[in-house]
Amino acid sequence: MNPFGKMLRQERKEKGITLATMADALGVSSPYLSQMETGGKPVKSKVVEKAIIYLDLSACEAEQLRRAAAKSTPKHVSSVGIKLPASATNSDRELASRFALNFHRWKPEQKARLREMLENVDLG
Predict the structure, then answer these.
(1) pLDDT digit string, tens, across residues 36-52
(2) What CATH number should be reported for the domain holding residue 14?
(3) What is the pLDDT of residue 71?
(4) What is the DSSP code (8-state) at residue 89?
(5) How many whole angstroms separate alpha carbon 8 and alpha carbon 30?
(6) Which residues lie below 8 Å from residue 28, measured CB to CB, with a gap of 6+?
(7) Is residue 75 very low, low, confident or very high in pLDDT (cuts 50, 70, 90)?
(8) How many domains does the chain contain in total?
(9) Smallest Cα–Cα separation from 44: which of 18, 21, 20, 77?
(10) pLDDT range class, residue 120, cuts 50, 70, 90
(11) How far apart are CA 76 and CA 28, in angstroms?
(12) Residues 65, 25 share a domain
């Protein structure tokens, strides 16, 4: 089970919610939610945000669930997308593209600095 699945399952069980009930509330099938919990399917941010609302998580718990989801990408998923808002500038688009195209070239210390920067992003 992945970090997202562990946390989600714990929250569900503490609140007495079945997998089927939660899947229905989140707009996904029970098998799909189960596979997200176990790492067989990618964790979609839309589902994470719906789960936060459905479970009525505190801001701290919500951030923990988001971080757990970020750590729970299946190993067989080799690509991810960068969703940009309609208001993104050409400079933003270029930066996102360069990031995505060159990530595999980054040194471990560069990735560590980026990870540190991302942990300090205000999601509020």
Answers:
(1) 888 888 888 899 999 99
(2) 1.10.260.40
(3) 82
(4) -
(5) 14
(6) 36, 47
(7) low
(8) 2
(9) 77
(10) confident
(11) 21
(12) yes
